[in-house]
Write a structure and sequence with these properties.
Layout: E1 2-6, E2 14-15, E3 24-25, E4 35-38, E5 44-48, E6 53-57, E7 63-65, E8 79-84, E9 90-94, E10 99-103, E11 111-113, E12 125-129, E13 135-138, E14 145-151, E15 159-165, E16 169-174, E17 177-182, E18 190-194, E19 198-204, E20 207-212, E21 216-220, H1 232-242, E22 249-251, E23 257-259, E24 284-291, E25 297-301, E26 311-315, E27 325-326, E28 331-336, E29 340-346, E30 352-358
Parallel strand pairs: 1-21, 2-27
Antiparallel strand pairs: 3-30, 4-5, 5-6, 6-7, 8-9, 9-10, 10-11, 12-13, 13-14, 14-15, 16-17, 18-19, 19-20, 20-21, 22-23, 24-25, 25-26, 26-27, 28-29, 29-30
Amino acid sequence: MMRASLVWTIVNPLVLGTTLAAQQRWDHEFIRVTAACERSDGSVVVSDPGDNSIVLLAPGGAARQVGRQGGGPGEYRSPGACFGLGGDTVAVFDRALRRFVLQPAGAAAPQTLPWPTQLGSGWFEPIGADDRGALLFQAPPAAGKAAILRVPRGGGGLDTLALVDAGDARAMAAGAASFRRDLPFSPRTGVVAAPGLGVALVHPEPFRVEVRRASESRTGSPIPFTPVAVDDGDIEAYIVAQSPPPGATGVRSDGKRVVVPQVKLTLANFGLTRDDFPKFKPAFDPAGLLVGRDGSLWIRVHRPSGNKSERYEVWTAAGSRGTPVELPEGRRLVGVGARALYVVVTNEDGGQAVERIAR
């Protein structure tokens, strides 16, 4: 396997949304968009777990739900992350049913891709599909490391692609159950995969990108960044992010579904103290990695808590550092197309709309 070193150049951020108006805003109102995947005809597959729906946005402005809720073929119960499988087929992970919903090209009915039998009954986090069409999963962390597994879609044995830093965590207990809670801002390796990219490993220390394809592996030089201190605003944001959103429901012991009461939580509710937060944030957020339809990699870097705009480092499909992109406050990036960005705008009532902005 060939390895090549990439030389990075320093460029200035490009601010979108101030001098560039949105090309299009769809009228469809969402509740909680997690991902948007563009197809070659300009349509966009959007996953909204807040409404338990998958929506297809047409370039002309129309919007329609894809499939329906349920447990039958092509149906879903809890749609989450989406990723391309090559061509115009988009896979949406259904966490509740532990399988994938496939939206083929055109207006064809959705199909079901079962959970790989090679993984057995254990829990593995889906990452995406690589340049050879195989599915990538992250295994449960152990001793601060996590295995990245490659599973061929046509059958065959799985293999371990990499062993990455999973960050620090603490064992927690809730009744008879135990679980692992990641410590806030603990440096972790981010991993994404796409047919046009291969597999990208974004390392925290030093901050750099490694791309693995079938034919080669490339590792970039360290990306310069200024450490950002953790402050009280970050702690408050963490508490909000871990708390049930307004209107969230739960199931009581008698089986009845009820709205979760809104109460003010503190770090103690999560088994944490201020000392569990580091002095500085790592360079980037591992949960903020996106792959464009053109094979570009977008990395959301950490900002001071008072700065509500998102900023992304960009790795081009050609294997070089692109122009960093900064979105103005009020827009959240959920998808990257070949020539457009897809952002979410939240209105005063909490409803969300998807906008397309030219790149």
